[in-house]
Amino acid sequence: MKTAQIVSRRRGAGKSLLTRDAIVSTALELIRRDGLDGLSLRKVATELATGAASLYVHIHDLDELLSLVLDRALAGVRIPRESEHWDKALEQIVLSYLRALFRHPGIARLAVSTIASGPNTLRIMEAILQLMEKAGCTGEDAAWGTDLMLQFAASTAAEQSARKEDLLCEISKVLELIDSVEFPRVYGLRRELLSGGGIDRFLWGHRAIVRGILGEPGKLVKRRVHPKFLKS
């Protein structure tokens, strides 16, 4: 006598089993396709032909999902092989990080507002911290410096992704018309203010950050600001 097989009607014929990985992959594709605005658990659930409530079995909330999505998007960031030139290796990492974010405007914006803590993010942070240690930077300087470098890359990617192509042209026209007597320095450097490509400016900023971190190791974080400073 054969035992009858019980088939769930909720899954339906040919429907894939709902998993955490499938949820993250679907959310990432939605951001790439439609942008970050309006992403919701309901839309993710609709794409997976299920109810939003079923997603909570695998994730806590939308914030956790966004964190997982960002970490997934960083899977392609390349970590160079060990090299004597720690500064060049560091630049390769942040440039790869920038490219990973720049591929899709939604992901770039997500990196500014979301903190990822998955395996890909940890792999990137570990590599940067190792290079900072090689440069003689440890402790809070290295930790805060790593965070600052990634923040700078994220904000650059978000800005470049959102910027309109003709914006610089419009700004250039404004700078040409300003009063050279009232704003002599701005007028004198009006072309320099808009010069340089995106990558050139990014690397200049990155190198300035690194120089600042290594300039006075161990002294940068000694001066504390009262927590109420920003509220005053």
Summarize the structure.
This protein has 232 residues and is an all-alpha fold.
Folded structure, characterized:
There is one protein chain. The chain is mainly α. It has two domains: 20-59, Homeodomain-like (Arc Repressor Mutant, subunit A); 74-216, Tetracycline Repressor, domain 2 (Orthogonal Bundle), CATH 1.10.357.10. Helix content is 59%, strand content 0%. It is built from eleven helices and no strands. α5 (86-102) packs parallel to α8 (139-162) and α7 (119-134) packs across α8 (139-162). The longest helix has 24 residues, at 139-162. The radius of gyration is 23 Å and the shape is globular.
CATH homologous superfamily placement of the largest domain: Tetracycline Repressor, domain 2
Task: Tell me the number of structural domains.
Answer: 2
How many helices? 11
What's the gyration radius in Å?
A: 23 Å
Quaternary form = single chain
Question: What structural class is derived from the secondary structure elements?
Answer: mainly alpha
Low-confidence runs of at least 5 consecutive residues: 1-14
**Count of extended strands:** 0
Order of helices and strands: HHHHHHHHHHH
Biggest sheet character = none
Strand content: under 5%
How many angstroms does the end-to-end distance come to?
Answer: 79 Å
Notable traits:
232 residues; mainly alpha; Arc Repressor Mutant, subunit A; Tetracycline Repressor, domain 2; 2 domains; 11 helices; 0% strand; globular; disordered N terminus
